[in-house]
Description:
Layout: H1 2-14, E1 42-45, E2 48-50, E3 53-56, E4 61-66, E5 69-72, E6 76-79, E7 85-86, E8 99-103, E9 108-114, E10 118-127
Parallel strand pairs: 1-4, 3-10
Antiparallel strand pairs: 1-2, 4-8, 5-6, 7-9, 9-10
Amino acid sequence: xxxxxxxxxxxxxxxxxxxxxxxxxxxxxxxxxxxxxxxxxxxxxxxxxxxxxxxxxxxxxxxxxxxxxxxxxxxxxxxxxxxxxxxxxxxxxxxxxxxxxxxxxxxxxxxxxxxxxxxxxxxxxxxx
Length: 128
């Protein structure tokens, strides 16, 4: 009887996802999906740039980081694609994670928006 109990316990433990077992119920970490907000940069979130306006010095580089993924490994994760598109047509590709940087060499106000969301998702950089 003792042997049967030990064998049943061993079988139960091996079914919990040890090496070689199915670990699909274990939490999965996916580092780098949401990029940490850049220091003095701009976070690209769902339908907003944060902060929406920024003032920098001539020669400064501004970095945008995508933070538009929601959900978890149990229920699925959704990442929304956005872009940083300047009024002159230059900017980032449409992406749902990662970063984009731009250096501003001349004073002025540089408006930008998301190509998917238009002016409902916009921001500006003032270069002094």
